[in-house]
Write a structure and sequence with these properties.
Radius of gyration of chain A: 24 Å
Mean pLDDT of chain A: 85
Strand content of chain A: under 5%
Strand order of the largest sheet of chain B: 1-2
Order of helices and strands of chain A: HHHHHH
Low-confidence stretches of chain A: 76-82
Number of helices of chain A: 6
Oligomer: heterodimer
Helix content of chain A: 55-70%
Distance between the termini of chain B: 64 Å
Shape of chain A: flat
Shape of chain B: globular
Helix content of chain B: over 70%
Number of strands of chain A: 0
């Protein structure tokens, strides 16, 4: 019973999201002006409008198929439906993905203030910890060596200065 | 064009820069193919930003090397760990792993290498012969044929690949929708940029591809229970003392029919968009078993099983490049990513590229042939190194992928906004994987989006008030539309056939 509800949601939630995308896109196309239209053929808004309509139709079909469980036999391609993991492992996995996304956002916000050489080893260390690595020497060495190697490649290989942060003295 | 001038242009691939890029690509490709969960697609996507700083032939040589090396690399981990490094190597595993279990790892890896080289060389010759001829024919195509071909490419990849057709089509639509962000390709009108100046040029191709494929893969790998792969690594003791065995050349001389049949199957399947290396490997494996004098040995370490699977999946590479180079329609996600690499260089694949950039095109074709040949010495010399790669800690690999994604995206335009796009598409790709929505159609839709829109709108301009009358005068367009209908009906027919077969089975 629980599996059936989960299976139905797996189809219904994306169908609903695609439907919302289709509605939003359709509405947005009315805001596209036609002052540059050349008078023949499609204007700038018609093509996305067609995409919106097709999205709405397909999302409806997907939703109906999920509701009546006609998609039950479909083989997953990129998903992990086949992976045998417990509920606890799944929850822990999702927590790690959430933490990784927070780390990526924090990294992007701090890249310029802290500079590449400080922000990147911290991000890499966090990701390695999330991947289950517990050897501090390996984490430290990998994070620092990778950062320095990439910094050297971009500076000497491509003549590109990455965000410097407080270590800008090193570059001069 | 004169034969000798073509040959001279192809020889540009032998100049130091393209040759170095090709060897680097082969080494990196095999490395990433060996590592389970990675594969040539990830390798090509990770390398694309770095090609931005190379000349066109060298950049494509690097990507071709990764494609060829990655396809073979999967066989190494399939043999040593019993985990296919790439999906294409799943059929190889059926016989290579049993061979390794009885202490013949070197034989399995050597057979896989030589069969891969044979398949790649065969597909290189077909690519060199067929792509220019197809491009010459495609020169007659107008906007309606080009639009129809783009639609066929997208429909085929969405319907012929595994999984739900509806989800595949929606994924392709998502790519087309993201491609509409930024300046309208005909009038220049700004669409859906949400007031961001950075989006006026559209979504960044590299951020889109890296996010959808690489960052989402990283998130999925992080989610898996700790130690899943490292346990397998450390548990295997079969990696020790692996080397190349010259005696496999003698074995292969007696398996010529299998090699030729499997390579032909791989090339043929590669040309058809959406099917790819996995199907070609399993189909060739089945054909080899059906034609074998000893079918009972398959699955227990048969030479023919390894040969069929590896020659077919490597031959698929040349086949898949034919539609991408000649008509600008990528046949699989790897060639879509390679097309992205060409677009980044300011080159649009298709028939006009053959006319206007003949030295570049012939350099690319030459690189493919030389790469296929170089795969043998590179694979032979470094076989034991590649086996040792399987001991690299999993966490260090994830850190490497992450830093390559970050720096690769940043290097192209040096905008922090591109990093935001990267994480956004990474999260989107992760959500799509969770919902079993295939990723490849989204990327192909995104890459083909501008071509699709421009040619559709040009067609509507030309047809005026009589689109039906216009289309009836375009037989090629009608044939392509018929193929699109066939591609859409194929999953329905397949499901019906499977249902009937199930009903016919007793019990």
């Amino acid at each position: 019973m629980r599996g059936e509800v989960a299976g139905r949601l797996l189809g219904l939630v994306p169908a609903a999201l695609f439907f919302v995308l289709g509605v939003w896109l359709y509405v947005e196309t009315f805001l596209i002006g036609d002052e540059f239209a050349i008078g023949i053929g499609m204007d700038a808004g018609t093509y996305p409008k067609i995409l919106a309509i097709v999205t709405l139709v397909l999302a409806t079909v997907m939703g109906l198929r999920a509701w009546f469980r006609l998609d039950a036999g479909e083989a997953p391609e990129d998903g992990d439906a086949g992976a045998a993991v417990s509920d606890g492992e799944r929850r822990s996995g999702r927590r790690k993905v959430g933490l990784a996304l927070v780390a990526l956002v924090a990294y992007t916000l701090l890249l310029h203030p802290l500079g590449f050489l400080i922000a990147t080893p911290v991000l890499l260390a966090v990701v390695m910890l999330l991947a289950g690595e517990r050897r501090p020497l390996l984490i430290g060495a990998t994070a620092i060596l990778l950062t320095v190697a990439v910094q050297a490649l971009s500076f000497y290989g491509f003549s590109i200065v990455l965000p410097e942060g407080p270590l800008r003295l090193l570059y001069s | 064009m004169e034969f000798f001038s073509i040959l001279a242009e192809m020889a540009t691939a032998l100049q130091p820069a393209p040759l170095l890029a090709l060897v680097a690509g082969l080494v990196f490709g095999i490395t990433i193919g060996v590592l389970p969960g990675m594969g040539p697609l990830l390798g090509v996507v990770l390398a694309i930003p770095f090609t931005f700083y190379m000349d066109p032939v060298s950049s494509l040589a690097l990507l071709i090397g990764i494609y060829q090396g990655g396809n073979y690399g999967g066989a190494v981990s399939a043999t040593i760990l019993g985990i296919p490094g790439t999906p294409m190597a799943a059929a190889t595993l059926l016989d290579a792993y049993p061979m390794a279990a009885r202490g013949e790892s070197s034989r399995a890896i050597s057979l896989a290498l030589v069969a891969s080289v044979f398949g790649s060389i065969a597909s290189a010759f077909v690519l060199i012969l067929v792509a220019p001829a197809l491009a010459e024919f495609a020169l007659r195509f107008g906007p309606s044929e080009t639009f129809a071909l783009a639609l066929l490419g997208l429909t085929a990849i969405a319907t012929l690949s595994q999984g739900s057709t509806i989800k595949g089509l929606l994924s392709g639509l998502l790519g087309l929708i993201f491609a509409t962000i930024g300046a309208d390709p005909i009038t220049g009108y700004q669409r859906f940029n949400f007031g961001f100046v950075d989006l006026q040029g559209g979504v960044t191709l590299v951020a889109f591809m890296m996010g959808i494929f690489a960052v989402s893969e990283l998130l999925v790998q992080l989610e898996r229970p700790i130690g899943t792969w490292s346990d397998a690594n450390q548990g295997s003791g079969k990696g020790g003392g692996v080397g190349f065995l010259w005696s496999v050349f003698g074995t292969l001389r007696t398996r010529m029919v299998n090699l030729l049949r499997s390579s032909a199957t791989g090339i043929g399947i590669g040309i058809i968009p959406g099917i790819g290396g996995v199907t070609s490997a399993f189909l060739s494996y089945k054909l080899a078993k059906d034609f074998s004098d000893a079918p009972e040995t398959f699955g227990k370490g048969a030479d023919d099983g390894v040969i069929a699977s590896e020659s077919a999946n490597s031959a698929t590479t040349g086949g898949a490049l034919i539609p991408m180079l000649a008509i600008g329609i990528p046949g699989d996600p790897v060639t879509a990513a390679m097309m992205g690499g060409l677009l980044l260089q300011g080159l649009t694949p298709g028939p006009t590229l053959f006319m206007e950039q003949s030295p570049v095109i012939h350099g690319i074709l030459g690189s493919f042939l030389i790469g296929a040949i170089l795969l043998l010495p590179v694979g032979m010399a470094l076989v034991s190194v590649f086996v040792r790669l399987l001991r690299i800690p999993f966490s260090a690999l994830l850190a490497t992928v992450l830093i390559l994604c970050t720096i690769g995206t940043f290097l192209v335009q040096r905008y922090t906004f591109d990093l935001w796009q990267l994480w956004f598409f990474g999260a989107l790709g992760y959500a799509m994987r969770k919902a079993n929505i295939p990723l490849s159609p989204a990327v192909i839709g995104f890459v083909l989006g501008p071509l699709f829109e421009v040619n559709l709108r040009r067609t509507t301009m030309i047809t005026g008030n009589d689109p039906l009358g216009f289309l009836l005068g375009r037989p090629v367009t009608l044939v392509i539309f018929a193929l699109i209908v066939a591609a859409l009906l194929y999953p329905l027919a397949q499901a019906r056939f499977a249902g009937k077969r199930q009903a016919a089975q007793p019990g």
